[in-house]
């Protein structure tokens, strides 16, 4: 009880009790901390150099205006001269032409993670739909709160309902109020979804207006058949409370999601035939641009099939617009962007094994394929220039799979061409309205960004911004290294980024720390400029490795971890360390790993499964057993525990807790974590207890999934303590 670290001993570990301030104070005492702060400041400055903001084009196509480091500048597209623009002028932001129809968007308040809006205003501004007392009510917007007034009320959440409006100022039952539904209850709700729909399907709204404001579609969510999960709240008060959530864990029943449409003219309620079964997922709801049909996506529970369906507003079975199927898992959020006619749309598909774009019609027909001309994935849709018949997009088409290049193709699929080149990553594209010019930024991990103006043939004609690296050179910063190694299949190239401390000395040995996330549907690393990692100044080498299972490398790369999370991805991290271990300045007896969420899971797995490679791990909010996580995410990549018992066993951290464990593990978790539940950590602690082992534990009583700055301080304090022993005390390694 006397020291700042140690609060109490438990059988299986050490419970750390500290504050963010105390952690920062102790961190400030570590050798190199002053350099960390100096480098951190320099990195912030370097990171903004070479980039521009608010790029706009004049209507006549004669000038280009942009802002660089707070200064407005203008480029003549005749002689490419750059002049300073009076900051008192407010440059007109020109709308990018040809980007498809954008019907009026219904206003709604911002919501927290995994929550849905409590109200949404009609496009014509006349009505506001509320989710209130588990039901949907309508009120004239003149009677309802202003959006700013409602924001404070919307921030308040009930455990079952999510955000709720201010009921005192908007009394249901007034003459102007229309009760759209009346049968809602705590676990049978209208106009809201649930936590898992918000977190995994990104449904931040559960009510959708038609473009003409005459119809309102909304969710009906039935959770009555599901089990409760309890979180304790008010953990620092004299008495605690309970938060109840119907949380579907892997293999357990899903909520049922139905759709209804309310017609303001007829005052009639129509139930949409969503088809399928009650365990499926229904999401991405929107009216067609003409408002005559309601579009929604439907995915089976296994998530290997996606269907986009259109339901008529007068009833009847929905019709199929487009379907996608994969032997593993199907991306459940492909791009669907309508063109101006409201009938044709750009569609994202992985049917070839690579992400590509198609042009399709709302009647269900394929008009033509646009980008599937080569075996590489497209990145993002940059612009649809309908007036000229061009589609612009990024694609990872170069020799380096991390480098995005700008491409374009005609909307009929002809004349595909790549507009950028070179060994750089290209981003921040701005296409001129006349399609004769474009602006983009190019860079690499070790090459500072440059923003330039190009012709439509890819010829650079003017530099708009460059990076000043003098500050980095003054501090002795060492450019990071992009390295490539083979996965254990002997064929797949994997990449990583290695950061070194300032004034790096290859004659000495440095401990190595792996920063990891590595989860499915995440980007592993990017070839964007990284001037330095400030935490290297504590005396570490720091590396990030892009394992299989991450995105933008094609479907085969992404699905390498299918049914076996925690195996292939961990092995790739191990092989990356072993590749770096061949260098004489890497101290293989002092290797640590740290990460949060899926990265926390990876960190625990790494130190338990490969104690000869990783001696120390710091895990924030980790999943420890996939049976504890939600259905949508977990079953997409692992199926159910009944279908894949071996995968769940081999992917569980608990499987690898053995009494021979000699490493150092710090686990940090928030008691209010409604995403990765604290039970994950308690199960790990219990497993250590049963094996009579010790781990270090830091509990955050007021934190949800994010832990705050105090956790980072604890992380580096812990890594410093266990990876920087006194000279001569370094044990051997089996690497």
What report would you give on this structure?
Strand 5 and strand 6 form a beta hairpin. It is globular, with a radius of gyration of 27 Å. The chain has twelve helices and 43 strands. Among the domains are: 233 residues, Dipeptidylpeptidase IV, N-terminal domain (Methanol Dehydrogenase, Chain A); 246 residues, Rossmann fold. The protein is α+β, with helices and mostly antiparallel strands and 735 residues long. The strands form ten sheets. Strands 1-2-43-42-41-40-38-39-37-36 form a ten-stranded mixed beta sheet, sandwiched between helices. Strands 13, 14, 15, 18 and 19 form a five-stranded antiparallel beta sheet that branches. The longest helix has 16 residues.
Summarize the structure.
The protein has 735 residues and is of the alpha+beta class. The protein is 16% helix and 33% strand.
What summary fits the major beta sheet? Answer: 10 strands, mixed
Gap between N and C termini, in Å? 39 Å
Question: Mind telling me which CATH architecture of the domain at 478-723 this is?
Answer: 3-Layer(aba) Sandwich
CATH class of the domain at 478-723: Alpha Beta
Tally of extended strands? 43
Percent range for β-strand residues: 25-35%
Structural Rg: 27 Å
3D shape? globular
Please, how many helices? Answer: 12
Biggest sheet, spatial arrangement of strands: 1-2-43-42-41-40-38-39-37-36
Overall pLDDT confidence: 88
Structural class: alpha+beta
Within CATH, the superfamily of the domain at 478-723 carries the name Alpha/Beta hydrolase fold, catalytic domain
